[in-house]
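During the no-cost extension, the postdoctoral fellow (Dr. R.K.) reprocessed legacy sequence entries with the updated structure-token encoder. One reprocessed record is reproduced below for audit purposes.
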Amino acid sequence: AHAEALQAAWSDVQATLAVLTPLLRSDGERALVNASVFLEAFGHTVLAWTWLRQAVVADGALAQAATAQEVDFYQGKLQTCRWFFHWELPRTVPQHALLRSLDDSTLAMQDAWF
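Re-encoded structure tokens follow.
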């Protein structure tokens, strides 16, 4: 299930880039106005990948763990991966949707309105 969730997240990254990359050529300011949101979503996707890699290794090593401490260590890796995929990675879905919508509310704000 985690591999499928990661694949969906990467598809979201690609879809967002497909919208933003051409916009960079014509309207760089609009393309980059929410760059911090893109970086957060992209970063969470990369972190999901690293947690999945760690979980695969931990799952394989768990059967060969020699001590209770090793078992705890590998169980901790597996549980953290589960947590990240259930709590953090799903947050990227609405972020990508908002980025792809090219909402201009940030750019429309006027200094005089503060």
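The chain has one domain: 2-104. Helices lie at 2-26, 28-32, 35-62, 68-88, 92-101, 105-108. The remaining legacy entries will be reprocessed before the final report is submitted.
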